Amino acid sequence: MSNRRQLSDAPFLEAAAGRTPSRRPVWFMRQAGRSLPEYREIRKDVGMLDSCFNPELLAEITMQPVRRHDVDAAILFSDIVVPVKAAGVDLDIVAGRGPVVAEPLRTASDIERLPELDPDSLKPVADGIARILDELTDQQVLIGFAGAPFTLASYLVEGGPSRNHERTKALMHSEPELWDTLMRRITPIVTGFLRAQIDAGIDALQLFDSWAGFLTERDYRRHVLPHSKAIFDEVADAGIPRIHFGVGTGELLGAMAEAGPEVVGVDWRVPLDDAAARISGALAAADPAGDRAEHARVLQGNLDPAMFFAGNAAIEAEVRRICGEADRAIDRGTARGHIFNLGHGVPPNTDADAITRTVKMVHEL
Ligand code: 1CP
To answer: Which of 255, 158, 263 has its CA nearest to residue 203?
Structure first.
């Protein structure tokens, strides 16, 4: 059963479908969070994970940036470790640090013990989504999300945030079959989280493989891509736009596009017209008999989050450059559309007014 809304001309959905939107859609990764005084206030006595399992609170926090900035999409307030927690893994999100796992998965028996996800444990998330959909207008979409298996595996294997992902890479290379088992056990947790959100009525979804950029393309293709592709295949029947994003993935853009998303998120390091050429080139090489138009994807990105600290004139110059590069790719037929975003998340100490002004610049361009 799906509660999906029928939205006819929301700018985000128009752009994601390769049609011309009434205005260029814009939203920001981590738009909910510490950059907003109203978020700091509402979270001051509530733990991060507690707020992710409280329908009223998660809906309120999801809506805060939409009300304040006039962005074209809400992103569900949750975290990539929420379904892992719901499955029963002992973990917490520690303020100023991130997800910390009590007993990291290192051996075959650790991995064997990774529990399965009971969809009922995500009912608070579904209830929160219902509240959000009640408040959004028919021009505003709700994006659901999940962490991709590699990025989730990194937290589970390392036990917390990691600078270089050594233990994760060591497992991948020293015990490739065990690595494969781990990825196969994480995959249903990811698809279960996405399915719960799809059934609750999200309008689009994003799969975050935030740390995939630490891998060589060769390792990504061999040890990660098949699992991310299985997830995109599994949720294709929902018929909603699917976005794939990672940080520092310039060398992987083509391979990540081969996983199957309609929209590819690009970090700030690669100009969007270059990104489009890499993506369409890789898709054409994988499907030489196909039609050229079939190889173009929608681009999402890619303002450097640090630009929020650079002042209006500098931000505006960057917004113009980025939109120009996206439009050039669309004109050339290497991209089908553009959704404006950052190259990664909003920094917690960003001035909220700088975010609002940036949204206005994109809309008025
Ligand atoms: O107390 C707090 O406010 C904690 C900070 C915080 C927030 C606001 C964390 C801990 N998670 C979140 C919310 C969150 N996480 C969202 C909300 C929606 C929005 O974008 O507005 C999303 C999409 C995520 C997803 C997430 N969590 C990712 C993928 C996105 C990305 O940033 O690359 C990752 C890698 C995480 C792990 C995580 N959770 C929190 C932190 C600080 C981290 C990163 C830790 C690290 O550096 O490894």
So the answer is: 263
The span from the CA of 348 to the CA of 354, in Å, is 13
Examine the residue annotation and report whether 39 is marked as an active-site residue of this protein. no
Longest Cα–Cα distance in the chain: 58
8 CA to centre of ligand 1 in angstroms: 31
Q: Which two tokens stand for residue 358?
A: 């940036």
32 pocket-lining for ligand 1 (C-beta < 6 Å): yes
Find all residues with CB under 8 Å of 355, minimum gap 6, and list them: 28, 31, 35, 65, 69, 308, 346
pLDDT at 2 over 70: no
Q: What angle do CA 256, 262, 268 make, to 5 degrees?
A: 55
Task: Give Cα separations from 101 to 50, 98, 339 (angstroms).
Answer: 16, 10, 34
The CA dihedral of 201, 206, 208, 209, to the nearest 10 degrees, is 120
285 three-state secondary structure: helix
CB 178 within 8 A of CB 111: yes
81 CA distance to ligand 1 middle (Å): 9
User: Amino acid letter at 178?
Assistant: L
- Classify each residue of 259-287 as buried b or exposed e, where b means 16 or more C-beta atoms within 10 Å of its C-beta: bbbbbbbbbbebbbbbbbbbbbebbbeee
The residues facing 172 across adjacent strands are: none
> 99-156, pLDDT tens digit by residue?
999 999 999 999 999 999 999 999 999 999 999 999 999 999 999 999 999 999 999 9
- pLDDT tens-digit series, residues 238-271: 999 999 999 999 999 999 999 999 999 999 999 9
